[in-house]
Amino acid sequence: MKIIRSIKKIQSLTKQLASEGTSIGLVPTMGFLHEGHLSIIKRALQKSDIVITTIFVNPTQFAQGEDLTTYPRDEKGDIQKIKDAGGQIVFIPKASDIYPNGYETYIEVESLTKILEGKSRPSHFKGVTTIVAKLFNMTRPDVVLFGLKDFQQATVLKKMTTDLNYPIKFIIAPTVREKDGLAMSSRNKYFSKSERPDALALIYALKAAKEMVKANITDCQRIQKEMQAVIKTTCKKARIEYIAFNDFNSLKPTDKVVKNTICSLAVKLYNVRLIDNMKLM
Ligand code: PAF
């Protein structure tokens, strides 16, 4: 497996691969890889000849006061996991190469980024779209894969890919969950053993919503109330940031669950901010 840290080297390698007709799959990550990432890498291997996994904790998507400096890192472990999963190339650029002194160019998707996560974290998506566009330019992928857990991120990035005419196939991979249903996330490691059961509040609430829809209850306000109750019963200290109902593709909010309605939520539990989502119909 090749480990590349220089932008020049990844550019010349991907140029050569493209000229040989080798298809490239890209899996952008911020490292501290878990089974969710590895399942995306394995899926990418089925879609392309060579998979480039990137590890870069992107400073521009963290606001001041967020967990940039404490974001979990394990470069050695990540490299081993990518190798074991069958990934052929790891690209680990330096922040000072990605954003050198005087850097001032950003990519922004306008309306899709103003709601949900964008409302709670106003500068977040500008950082995400900028780094992903830069990674596209450096690695020239034929296919790119993102996880459904960050569904708004996937929707925003898909829009950017279309709007900027990148000839890249865009795949959204299903959320991988722990045995008990908690969506896998690098931030799950912040929970102590005694706090960890409370993290199930999100999936319990989403499952309750799904059951209501199965029972033909489609009024979002009613479903939201029930979800709030489930969360509070699971963890008294939970702080719900939002519970929202949107169209999966357009992100248009809806009052009634209809085809393609996705319910997403963000909840803060003991200073850990978790997000999750489920398609309700
Ligand atoms: O989902 C992530 O890990 C990050 O937001 C991404 C897409 C790698 C961009 O830094």
Can you describe this structure?
This protein has 281 residues and is α/β, with parallel strands linked by helices. It has two domains: 2-173, Rossmann fold (3-Layer(aba) Sandwich), CATH 3.40.50.620; 186-279, 2-Layer Sandwich (Pantoate--beta-alanine Ligase, Chain: A,domain 2), CATH 3.30.1300. 37% of the residues lie in helices and 19% in strands. It contains nine helices and nine strands. Helix 7 (151-163) links the parallel strand 5 and strand 6 (169-173). It is globular and about 55 Å long. The structure holds pantoate (PAF). The site of pantoate has 10 residues, from strand 2 and helix 6.
Radius of gyration: 19 Å
Main beta sheet: 6 strands, parallel
Write down the overall geometry: globular
Could you name the CATH topology of the largest domain?
Rossmann fold
**How confident is the prediction overall: mean pLDDT?**
97
Ions and ligands: pantoate
The counted number of beta strands is: 9
Helical amount: 25-40%
SS strand fraction: 15-25%
Alpha-beta classification:
alpha/beta
Which CATH architecture of the largest domain?
A: 3-Layer(aba) Sandwich
Query: Looking at this structure, what is the CATH superfamily of the largest domain?
Result: HUPs
How many distinct helices? 9
Low-confidence stretches: none
Number of domains: 2
Give the end-to-end Cα distance, rounded to a whole number of Å: 42 Å
Secondary-structure element sequence?
Answer: EHEHEHEHHHEHEHHEEE
